[in-house]
Amino acid sequence: MQLEQQRQALPVTGCKKRLLEEIHKTDTLLIMGETGSGKTTQIPQFLLEAGFGKKGMIAVTQPRRVAAITIAKRVAQEQQCQLGELVGYTVRFEDCTTPKTRLRFMTDGFLLRDSLADSLLRNYSVIMLDEAHERTVSTDVLFGVVKMAQRKRKLLNLDPLKVIVTSATMDIDHFGQYFGVKGMYLEGRTHPVRVMHAKESQSDYLHATLVTLFEIHRNTPSNHDVLIFLTGQEEIEAMAQQIRQIAKTNLSSIAGVRVFPLYAQLPQNKQLECFLPAPPNARKIVLATNIAETSVTIPGIRCVIDAGFVKRRIYSPATGLDILRVVRISQAQAWQRCGRAGRDAPGTCYRTYTEQEMKSFEKMPTPEILRSNLCSTVLQLLALGFDCKRFEFLDKPPAEALDAAYKKLESLGAIQNVAPKPTITVLGRKMNRFPIDPQYSKLLLTASQFGCMEEMLSLVAVLSSENIYVSSVEKREQAALAHAKFHSKHGDHLTLLNVFSAFLKTEKIKLWCHDNFLNTRNLSYARDVRKQLLDIAEHLNLPINSCGDNFDQVRKCLLMGLFDNIAELQRDNFYLTITGRQRAKIHPSSVFHGKYRPEYIIFSEIVLTEKNFLRQVTEISPEWVAEVVPNFAHLSRIKVST
Ligand code: ADP
Ligand code: MG
């Protein structure tokens, strides 16, 4: 009953009739509306109730897997069905649907993969590309893919494919021109939000955020919930701990606080907690990444604290490296964040940056496709038969980024004849069968030659999952001791492999994970991923062999895919990446941190914040480079000691 009332009260409900009329009339619809107006949860249900799910499923894409899952749960609740029956979701490595499913939430990445199996997307009658303003690479590419599918279905006299593009309040003209249709605006209902800027520039935004929070806590009624925007898991967990600590020691006389982190890697049941109301006399404080910016709406928020930063994956074709970097948000994002305070009632937004500083933020975020590594995308488009240089991109990626992707794919053996016309190789097609980055599928496709298929399946599975270690502030030393048991002297990849192998042999996993400060959910997820990777490997007839204790084979095999991630120790104890010449140190979470410094290492990723860090590193021997990737060794001028 209450759910139904909430649904009726959403702004989008008033437009239901008009929406359905429009979608019957035209094949493509652009809808723009305030965040929280009900686009994501309601429009798919209107379609379902109008019978659109009968001939094919209704697909709704989300840029983030967390959003796809939480929204599917919510909608299943509203439809009063078991999740996975009428309403389900599919994200990479996780499928919660049945043949009964008519409404399927999914990541944009999954739909893109699905189009590889059928470029006409015949399983679907309607595709709603949601959160289009986020401009992820997958959504951007899907624009072109669905447009082509619509055209082909028309030519073949098949049922039309209806496409709905939904977006928060941004740049709809651009989409309109691309699809050749006009946009529809939904009336939003938001309350005024008072904006407070920092008076002077803050050198420590985390400190500024904490101070602001406790000022709010002292001076506003306890039912005004607070949403704080931070950049990622580590930052959020550290601040959550600090807030709880301060509240425990200093606030006995005022109302209590309930702190809820919200980020992608958080276990699902924890993610849902922040949607529940806080107990009376306690204030709900949600610490979130930009997931709370537009994709999910948390009820009760009256205050927003915006630190003004976001973590972005940035690819530089010049250096050939993918980099995680904490950067300033755009002005459009700042206004989105601000709006989150005015969903239920008038609110306040506190910005820990000055008004002047905000003027220097870029107006709109740069679409991801203009700043990403395009290897997977290019490979997928080639498999779909598209020539990337002629593909109808909403915004065309720079030629140098496409060229860099071609070059990398060629060096991985996935494509050939880059000039004049790149074609996908047999190996490239096989690489596409794995739903992972081409570098990693290359590892799996060559692992049997190194005799280490079992090990590589495990390693890639663990690398595909989120952090398997549990950190504990109170029991830091105990956790470190527990983790040390698994340490490999060769580095972090083999350490991960040790943990995972032990996990696979364990029966009472919950207890074992608890005792060893390991994350049961992420390890179980890795186990499922491994099973799926194994299935694909068996389909491809790859020999499933094991190298036993001869872990050098695993380390050599890593070079097959990650040769661009080699770094060399410098005299000042920094490392220099061979490709791209970036200076960085080994991340504190590494087994090498503060101890032995190997001369040559291979790393999983490079993170640039105030300091540059290489995450997950393994020692390699320079001789191997010439042996395993001779072409690269030739180019890289690695010193080989004799
Ligand atoms: P939009 O897509 O337009 O941003 P949504 O359809 O996501 O809007 O959300 C509509 C409303 O549904 C929101 O105001 C929010 O309060 C509510 N809502 C969505 N998901 C949940 C959930 N898991 N729990 C409680 N309320 C939710
Ligand atoms: Mg939405």
UniProtKB/TrEMBL annotation:
Coiled coil: none annotated. It catalyses: ATP + H2O = ADP + phosphate + H(+). Keywords: ATP-binding, Helicase, Hydrolase, Nucleotide-binding. Gene3D superfamilies: 1.20.120.1080, P-loop containing nucleotide triphosphate hydrolases. SMART domains: DEXDc (SM00487), HA2 (SM00847), HELICc (SM00490). Residues 20-188 form the Helicase ATP-binding domain. GO terms for molecular function: ATP binding; double-stranded RNA binding; hydrolase activity; RNA helicase activity. SUPFAM superfamilies: P-loop containing nucleoside triphosphate hydrolases. The keyword Nucleotide-binding applies. It holds the Pfam family OB_NTP_bind. This is RNA helicase.
